[in-house]
Amino acid sequence: MTDIFPAVHATARRRLDATDIARVAVFAGIIAVLGLPGAVTIFGAVPITAQTFGVMLAGVILGPWLGALSMTVFLGLVAVGLPLLSGGRGGLGVFVGPSAGYLIGFVVGAFVIGLIVHAGLRKPTLWRTATGIIVGGIAVVYAFGIPLQALITRLPLPETFLTSLVFLPGDLIKAVLATAITMTLVRAYPRAFRRTWA
Hints:
The chain is mainly α. The chain has helices at 6-13, 18-34, 51-62, 64-79, 100-117, 126-153, 157-164, 168-188.
């Protein structure tokens, strides 16, 4: 029987080594640094931040499992009270606030990005990278974020969806930048990836 997700199963079978742990830590740090410029809140309770850009890069460069792990480490640090989210937010309270679904979406989104970009253990391509980033980094994050935001704020889902469209232009710009960076790294510095392709 053909394995349609070899990248997932190969990574799952391999134990974490020092390099993996270091890369996970680096990307957790990158997400934190991207929160330093602060956030802008427009038409709602969820801020616009640069941190989703880090989610996109983590999924692309680390792959599904390590990308998701880096997001989990980052959120674990937030949970224990470190003010790593944009605007200096941290603590367990953020996981019951309007942004809670988006934070969950960080983990799932990074996993989906890595799954698509590294499908079949193949070298990342332009179309697969762009597709993975848009599906995982935007659609998946929104799919978790918008319904939970509507539930927590007690606003109708259609209204929450419409107000959340304010994020879309910025997220599309991040997707373009993340795709361009990925393609540059594939050509100029393939060692940036945990390579499973020849």
